[in-house]
Design brief:
By secondary structure, this protein is mainly alpha-helical. The protein has 12 helices and no strands. Helices cover about 80% and strands about 0% of the residues. It is globular and about 55 Å long.
Length: about 260
């Protein structure tokens, strides 16, 4: 079954959607959209380092994404506004990564595949990495769900409940880095943040609880992956952007339904 490239691509898209959905909910709740974008942009530098030292792309992207996330966490609140700090680091990491890739000698790479993804080229080993990373992220979120939710709602409440908000932030940071590393093959560094945010934002107008929002976001992400791949096959469009386009259309539709329902009530 896995010899069919479309089957592998579909399974890869669903795996990334399952990893991104619950994490994307926390990104939306904590207003961390730019944080996810910065971490994703840093991954291109990880790609360059991976090719330079002949490591797997997953390893390099994970290491740099995690380093970026940790650095931003440590530097926040030290004289710069968070959006300014994230803007500087995100675009700097992307620029240094692109320059580093251009300086690689004797190595030919398809830069567009890393920027916008190449889900149709996913191999069996890539599929194993994607689903392994997704399982790790989902396990972390389920394990710390109550603590993460409490720390997201109110830091003082988290301290009163015996939880350390900084520890929960670290878990989110680790999960975000893993998600970026596994998603780079599917949608590329420029669209990872969209796959994190859009399904969660679309689910927000339909959900009645945090748990239902995470489940609905997972369903929207998986459907977007399947429908986006189908649209890319039919209309001969790029697969990664097509997936994001389907998610954006669903967000617009669900937001309209939620708005109409709210005003009827």
């Amino acid at each position: 079954m896995l010899d069919d490239f479309m089957t592998r691509a579909t399974l890869a898209g669903i795996g990334v959607a399952f990893a991104a959905a619950p994490l994307g909910c926390f990104v939306v709740w904590r207003r961390m959209a730019y944080f996810g974008d910065a971490t994703a942009h840093a991954a291109i530098l990880g790609v360059a380092l991976s090719l330079t030292f002949q490591m797997s792309v997953f390893t390099g992207a994970l290491a740099v994404a995690l380093l970026m996330a940790m650095t931003v966490t440590m530097l926040s609140g030290r004289g710069y506004a968070m959006d300014t700090l994230l803007g500087v680091m995100a675009h700097s990491a992307l620029a240094f990564g692109l320059v580093a890739v251009s300086l690689l000698s004797g190595i030919r790479i398809d830069l567009m595949a890393y920027l916008f993804g190449d889900i149709l080229a996913v191999s069996r080993s890539d599929l194993l990495v994607i689903w392994g990373g997704a399982a790790l992220v989902v396990a972390l979120i389920i394990w710390r769900w109550s603590q993460l939710l409490t720390a997201t709602l109110n830091e003082e409440l988290a301290y009163a409940s015996g939880y350390d908000p900084k520890c929960e932030q670290l878990i989110l940071t680790l999960s975000l880095a893993v998600t970026v590393a596994v998603a780079i093959k599917v949608v590329g560094v420029l669209l990872i943040a969209a796959l994190l945010i859009i399904p969660a934002a679309a689910a927000r107008s339909l959900a009645r609880s945090p748990e239902s929002m995470a489940l609905i976001a997972a369903a929207i992400g998986a459907f977007s992956a399947v429908a986006g791949l189908r649209a890319a096959y039919v209309f001969d469009t790029p697969a990664g952007p097509s997936i994001v386009c389907v998610a954006a259309i669903l967000f617009a539709c669900f937001s309209l339904v939620g708005w109409q329902t709210k005003h009827k009530l």
